[in-house]
Amino acid sequence: MSVPIQSQIFNPVTGVFGNGQVLIFGQGQSGTWYVPPGVNRVRVRCFGGGGCPGGSGGPGGGGGFALKTIYDLTGVTSVAVVVGASGGTSSFGSFVSATGGGASSTVGTGVGGDINTSGGAGSTGGGGVGNLFGNGGAGSNVGQSGSSGGGGSSSGGSGLFSQGGTSIYYSSGGGAPNSPTSGMNTFSIDFIGTGGGGSQATNGSGPGISGINGGGGGYSASTNQGGSGGYPGGGSGYYGNYGGAGMVIVEW
Question: Which of 84, 135, 147, 168 lies at a C-alpha separation of 20 to 30 Å from 213?
Fold first, then answer.
C-alpha cells in the first residue's frame, strides 16, 4: 500500500504542485493511482532500482530518475504504478519511467520525463542514483561525488547535500566518521536520492558499509563483501546483496 502525505510539502526547487497532495509508492508498493474527481494534471517522479549482481560478484550501477508533468488526464480514470525492485524499472503507466541499474557500467536512466538523469556506474563500489539535480556518482576505490554519491573502499562519494562514508582503516587521522549522511536534515521530496556512498568497514574487519538515500554501497576487500545500495536506487558494492529498490512519487 502506498503512503499518503497530506501535510505541507517542502519543495525548495519544484514548489508545491496543484493541491499539494502527494502519494509515495515505495519499496514493494506497486499499485494503482486513481485520478481524483476534478484533477486533470499530475506531476510524477520515478526512481529506478539500483543494480545488484548479488553473490556472483561485480558492483551495481545506480538507477535512473525522471520527473514529468502530465497536463491532460482527460478520459484517464486510473494509472498503473510499478516500483522497480533491485535493478528494475519504475513507471507511471506509459507516461514516464526510470530504468534500473545493472552490473558495473550499466546504469539506469529516465525515459520520457521533462527531466531525465542517469545513475552512476559501479566500479568496486556501487553507483549512486540519478535525481532531480543530476547524475549519480560512480563507485570506485574512492567513491565519486555526484548528485548522489558512489560507494568506495577508502571513502564514499558525497551527494549534493550529504557526505560520503570514510573508512577508519584507511584514514590517517584514525578517527574519521564511518557512516555516510543522507542529505535529508529537512525532509523534502526534492532531496530524495541525494545521499552519500558507503565505504569499507571500520578497520577492514566487516562488510562494506551501505549507501544511504540513493548512495552506492561500499566495498571491503578484507572480507570481499559489498554494502547494499541506498534506497531509492543506489547500486550495491562488489559482492553486495541488495541494490536500493525504486520509488514513484505522485503529486496533484
Answer: 168
